[in-house]
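S1.2 Input.
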Amino acid sequence: MAHQGKFQKQLSLVDLTMIGLGAIFGSGWLFSASHVAAIAGPAGILSWLIGGAAVLLLGLVYCELGAALPRAGGVVRYPGYSHGALLGSLMGFITLIAFSSLIAIETVACRQYAAAWFPSLSKSGSGDPTALGWSVQLLLLTVFFLLNYFSVKTFAKANNIISIFKFVVPLLVIVVLLTHFQPHNMQVQGFAPFGFAGVEGAVSAGGIIFAYLGLTPIISVASEVRDPQRTIPIALILSVLLSTVIYLLLQIAFLGSIPAAMLSHGWTAIGTEFSLPYHDIALALGVGWLAVLVVSDAMISPSGTGNIYMNATPRIVYGWARSGAFFKVFTRIDDKSGIPRPALWLTFALSVFWTLPFPSWEAMIGVVSTALVLSYAVAPITVAALRRSAPQLARPFYVHGFAVLGPLSFIVAALIVYWSGWTTVSWLLGLQIVMFVIYVAYKLGTRANRAVLRTEVFSSAWLIGFYALMMAASYLGTFGGKRLIPHPWDSVTVCLIALLIYYLGSYTGLPASQLDMGSEDDD
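S1.3 Output.
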């Protein structure tokens, strides 16, 4: 029978790097190229560089946290350590939404590409699944669940095998498309036909930030890593740098190999003409064998990423429960396998739930990307607060220049959230504000310690202020808003909001006397 066992340290540097790369290389590379081209044209190359730099900044922040505090589900536990259970609860909620929905979106991607061979899996024109298509998605989710049910090493071996195939195909795509490269394509309507607003919009709406965000699974399994103080930082940095190089080459190859006749009306229609970018362009170029290979990979790459998040999400649930802000049943770990099985069952149920509205990849990408960024965004403030309140904490990986990198990384995260548009911002941030109210009302109703609750509210008020100001900026701005604040002043406004909130959050962390960070041995 399951009981409070311990995680087993079975993951090596190779395993962890493959988890990071495998989480990054999912459905993002298979869909983003044409969306980025439609939004930004050739300037989408800059969008990939911005996305890579942003994620590397956040990755460096997580290097300090992951090496100093290697905890299972650390991404939701760190905010609780620095600012209390209320902030940890809010971050746990948004991260659970992000991770569980990401599992679903990867199965959706598998099904959409498989429909190139089996049209009965998708409804004509919409990309939404038929009943048969949804059943295939459910089968995939069940396979992910079973791969993660028995041991973390079983999961890691499966992931390593899948990851090898996942990288062979993108590299082959790059080589083949570059042989059809037409330099003139890079100047159709100019390098940046939609201006810098197009470059910004492509980062969020084009799926770039979604394609990059695969770092938190590395942190989530920290308690199962051998030599975490050395392994975690190396794996994080390697994952981001290698993925940036591959993504840039893929985008350049795609842009340059589009047949010139298809660009006669500009870039806007590219997103619909190449809805399955590398499959469709391979057919347009007469390279049928490559199209077959891309579809084959498209049923494997997203599967690998979905499998990784099926592994990471239970650790998030476990970490949330260990913080005291979620049901204690989810702290139970099977003694023989070292798997938090109640949390795994919840993850499976939620991933199935996210497929119930029968969405397409395009319909889900904005919400998932923004939820992922929100789950990352608090990390710089957590580091700053813990440097003030816990200067004695051993930091095997110390981020130098954090006085600049800390606020800069939070500003970049805020911009990415803002660029996702009013519809997504209002839904997700509004939901977080509602959760804040529910939490406080619940605590008051249970006659919780009022002094502790006041401290938690004080330490978390900056986040609610951030949400409210971001919603106002989004409503008034140019990304789906009323355009009352013109571009680029809307982005400048967001930068100023983020800078203010960063320093408020940094200075309102818990005092040293109230810090409780436990120990790695507790997991």
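S1.4 Remarks. The first helix runs from residue 13 to 24.
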